[in-house]
Design brief:
By secondary structure, the chain is mainly alpha-helical. The protein has eleven helices and four strands, in the order ααβαβββαααααααα. Helix 3 packs across helix 5 and helix 5 packs across helix 8.
């Protein structure tokens, strides 16, 4: 049975928040392991909190600017790309946002786009020149509505939060691993006897596995938010075939590689900016759900 746009949005929001809850559980586990490793749970937790606050402040204030710089995006004017601005301005009203996001363009033949920022008042939408050249008006509006949905649904904030959480886990895990390799773990296990050795083993296992699980959770969040943005875009435009047709063209793009994209920014794009591969592990570590499934869901709306 076909699901309504509202049911699709509601289901994806619930799944996304459940996944984010798993993220918090994982961070709690890493915090406890870090505290056990240094011999004091309270001090370990305090250090983890300080690292988290500093890291969050940096990403919160500079994250979007760093992303735009890394991807080679340049801010453009209405005079340069009037059709892009018309689509953004019209869909801003349809989405119920207070102000249009800033518009950026990447000079690249690949068909792709992304949104970034910390909230709807500090957001931007970036598209490639290839996307502007090859999509029809309805298809372009579908893509812009998808990115507008990421802004409206605060996906840009959630993905920034997910990136911060992964960063905190990686920093703490790296610290534990480097300390262990440089002999800190061996010294502590000798001093504390058998219990110290057990704590070291637990901390080491958590330090190795936590970043992997954190990355998998982040990718799962990204995939669920893509489904949500597709459903929200269909609701904004009231024309699901527009986005479905755009995704079909993106899927058929002979050169989907965005030159300035990297693993840190890949989850932001409407479709993976790398050449597509298939396989079970590829699906687990993919930043996006299968584009064929996204098209099928839009056709059922």
């Amino acid at each position: 049975m076909a699901r309504s746009m509202f049911e699709e949005i509601r289901a994806n929001k619930l799944r996304s928040w459940l996944i984010m809850f798993m993220f918090f559980i994982l961070i709690a586990i890493v915090g406890v392991a870090f505290g056990l490793y240094i011999g004091d749970i309270y001090i370990g937790t305090a250090i983890a909190v300080i690292i988290g606050i500093v890291y969050t402040l940096v990403v919160w204030n500079r994250g979007d600017k760093m992303i735009l710089s890394m991807t080679g995006a340049k801010e453009v004017t209405k005079k340069e790309f009037p059709h892009l601005f018309h689509a953004v301005e019209g869909l801003t009203v349809a989405a119920g946002l207070k102000k249009p996001p800033k518009c950026y363009v990447i000079k690249d033949t690949a068909l792709n786009a992304f949104a970034t920022g910390r909230d709807p008042e500090h957001a931007s939408i970036t598209v490639t020149t290839g996307l502007l050249d090859k999509l029809s008006r309805e298809e372009l509006e579908g893509v812009i509505a998808h990115e507008m949905s990421h802004i409206k649904n605060y996906d840009i904030r959630m993905m920034m939060l997910a990136a911060v959480m992964v960063g905190i886990i990686v920093l703490l895990s790296d610290f534990m691993l480097h300390s262990f390799l440089w002999g800190g773990g061996r010294r502590r296990s000798r001093n504390d006897g058998g219990s110290g050795a057990i704590m070291m083993v637990i901390a080491l296992v958590v330090a190795i596995l936590a970043p992997i699980f954190a990355q998998l959770i982040k990718l799962a969040v990204s995939r669920k938010r893509e489904y949500l943005a597709d459903a929200s875009a269909a609701m904004i435009t009231r024309y699901p075939p527009g986005l479905a047709s755009a995704l079909a063209k993106i899927r058929s793009d002979p050169d989907p590689l965005v030159d300035h994209a990297n693993r840190a920014t890949a989850h932001l794009f409407i479709s993976t900016p790398f050449r597509k591969k298939k396989g079970f592990l590829t699906g687990m570590f993919s930043t996006h759900p299968p584009i064929e499934e996204r098209i099928a869901r839009l056709k059922r709306m």
